[in-house]
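Attaching the record inline, Q. Sequence:
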Amino acid sequence: MAKLTAPKGTKDVLPSDSYRWQYVESVLKQICNDFNFKEIRTPTFESTEVFARGVGDTTDVVTKEMYTFLDKGGRSITLRPEGTAGVARSFVENGLYAGVLPLKLFYLISCFRYEKPQAGRLREFHQFGVEMLGTTTPNSDAEAIIFGAEIFKRLNIGNITLNLNNIGCKECRKAYNEKLKAFLEVKKDSLCETCQERLGKNPMRIFDCKSEVCQSLIKDAPTIFDCVCDDCRDHFNTVTDILDTVGITYKIDKGIVRGLDYYSKTVFEFVSDNIGAQGTVLGGGRYDGLIADLGGNDAPGIGFAMGIERLLLLAEGAMEVFEDTPDVFFIPIGDAAKKQVYQLVYSLRGQGISAEYDLNARSVKAQMKYADKIGAKYTVVIGDDEIAQGSYPVKNMSNGETVNVAPDEIITVVKA
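Structure, as predicted:
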């Protein structure tokens, strides 16, 4: 019988690596606490319409990458390709707009996109994101960007570039799309087939094309940054003023449009050169029309998302993390000692101590080797003499020193 393997584009997170995930997630959650963001958990799958209406039916995500199927009731269901649309749907459905605004939310989720697997980019991937709903101010745009910068700061990740763009409001984009169409119409036959379709439906999507030919054709195209209205320009200038005030450096990249249709005004990306050509680690922006697109009352929003796998690639070697290992390993000799160990392990675990003992009936010598292999910080060998004397030898495995203490004093030594 053939050996079963994980589907292409998925990856097991093994115990030897999961502690790094836990560390990164703990840092992210601590920042959320410091910035007063609360967790939201949405379903792994949604009605396909949530993403078609929210993400945009001309985006690569919707047209090429989604895992969509009919359930047994004949409903079109999609595994979530990103987090924002589901959060927006929940905001509308659960009436969260009636609460205290802005609503500051975060999520840690798995997402699914059918695309070519590469370094840090899988078909099932994990995403951290934040959303602020119910705020129109440029201060909230700056808040989201400052939050993103804080992640790299706390994880000691350097060589990150923050790129910003201003893609204006719907009216700005309407005027810009006409200008872009006029520029590209004479080059239409040279565009790839997908971009020829985009030219008629949503010309800005051409900036997302990976074709070198298409990229060369739009190299000298007009940019939306130069076509925005006064209100959108003032909004963006305030964002950059705040970033200047707190000392966050950035570059203006007039080519950023982001890959999803719901963005408006401020868009941003944190980019690294250390993970290959697909260097965006964190991306986001403002999405003032998304809630209305999903059937709710018009409510503005701003947020970002980042892939955990890509973040871990960058953090490797930069963050100081240590694998969790048992605090103490007990080695009983004899039946009476075994009963004593059961009681001690149960008691210590209840007090927050990671306590272990042998489950495989190994010899004493083999248990000592096993304790060393699993990285136990202390070992305690208990036999009839130790029980009779009420004094147990607690050995520090890093330096070999041993102290003899009463059973109820073991926790003091281990915690020291």
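The mean pLDDT is 90. The first strand starts at residue 38 and ends at 39.

More tomorrow.
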